[in-house]
Amino acid sequence: MIFEAILLTIITAATPLVIAAVGELVTERSGVLNLGVEGMMIMGAVGAFAAAQATGSPYIGLLAGIFVGALFSLLFGFLTLTLVANQVATGLALTILGLGASGMLGESHVGAPGIKLPAIVFPFLSEIPFLGPVLFRQDLVFYLSIALIVGVNWFLFRSRSGLKLRAIGDSHDSAHALGVEVIRTRYLAVMFGGACAGLAGAQLSLVYTPQWVENMSAGRGWIALALVVFASWRPWRVLAGGYLFGAVTIGQLHAQAFGIGIPSQFLSMLPYAATIVVLIIISHNRRTTLINTPASLGKAFVPDR
C-alpha cells in the first residue's frame, strides 16, 4: 500500500513535467527555442484556477489554462518570428513577465478553496489490485499526457506534416526552398508548446495542489526544458525522463517525512541538482547530442534575406 501511494504521487508530480516537455519538444523540433515555458506554465495555472473558481467547473479551468498558455505563446511568436527578436532573451523575458503577471492576477485568489479535478474511474478495471488505482483511477490530465506522447510521436515520425516540421528544424532555408511555409509552421508549433505549458500549469492548480499559490510552478518549466535535451528530442524518452524527475521530487519529500538525517534544504534542491547532473552527463556525449539536435534551433528565419 505504501509503494502504491508513493507511485500515485510520482505520477501526479511527473505529469506536468511530461506535458510541458512534450510541448517544448515540438516547438524545438521546428527550430524555435522558447525558454518561456515557466512563464506560460504559471500563467496557465492562474488562468485555470480563476476560471474554475468563476464557473465552478474544473474542466472549464483546464480549457482556460490551455487557452492562456497558447495566447501567451503568441506574444513570444510575434516577437521572435515576426519581429525577429532574439529567442533566448525573449524567452527569458516571457518567464519574468509570466511570474510577475501571475502574481498580480492571482493575488485575489490566494487562500481561496480550490476545485479539484475528479478522477476518472473505470468500472471493474479500477478494482484490480495495485494496477487499478495506478492506471484506471486517474484524472483526465494524466490520460491526456499519455495521449500527447503517443500522438506527438506519431505526428513527428509517421505523418507528412511532422516530416515538414522536422525539415524546418533541420534546415529552414532548404524547407523554404521546397515550398514549406516556415513561419506559419513555427507559429503553430509555438502555440502547441504554449498550450501544453498552460495545460501543465492547470494540472498544478487543479490536481497537484488544488489552490493558487504564487510561483507554484517552482522551476518546473526549467526542468521541462532540460527534459527535452535529456530525451534527445524523442517523445518516449520524455515520458521516461518525466517520471524519473518526478520520482526524485517525490523521493525528497518522503525522505523529509521519514525524518532522514539530511538537511531539508539539501533534499529540496535534489530535483534541480539532478537536472544539472543529467545535463553535464549529456554534454559529454557531444556526437549523440549533435546528431539529435535540430540544426536550425534558435536561428531566426527571414525569407527575403
| Beta-strand percent range | under 5%
Radius of gyration, CA atoms, in whole angstroms: 19 Å
> For the record, what CATH class applies?
Mainly Alpha
Average pLDDT score: 89
Globally, the shape reads globular
Q: Class by helix and strand content?
A: mainly alpha
Please work out how many helical segments DSSP would assign: 14
* Structural domains: how many: 1
Tell me the series of helices and strands, N- to C-terminal: HHHHEHEHHHHHHHHH
Helix amount: over 70%
Strand order of the largest sheet: 1-2
The CATH topology is ABC transporter involved in vitamin B12 uptake, BtuC
Largest sheet: 2 strands, antiparallel
| DSSP summary, beta strand count | 2
Residue ranges: pLDDT <50 for 5 or more in a row?
Answer: none
Compute the separation of the termini in Å: 62 Å
Q: Can you tell me the CATH architecture?
A: Orthogonal Bundle
Polypeptide structure, described:
By secondary structure, this protein is mostly helical. It has a single domain (2-107, 138-292), classed as ABC transporter involved in vitamin B12 uptake, BtuC, CATH 1.10.3470. The chain contains 14 helices and 2 strands; from the N terminus they run ααααβαβααααααααα. It has helices at 2-29, 37-55, 58-82, 87-105, 131-135, 140-158, 160-170, 172-177, 182-208, 220-230, 235-257, 264-268, 270-284, 286-292; strands at 119-121, 137-139. α1 (2-29) runs parallel beside α6, α2 (37-55) runs antiparallel to α3 (58-82) and α2 (37-55) packs across α10. It starts with a helix and ends in a 13-residue tail after the last helix. The model has no long low-confidence stretch (mean pLDDT 89).
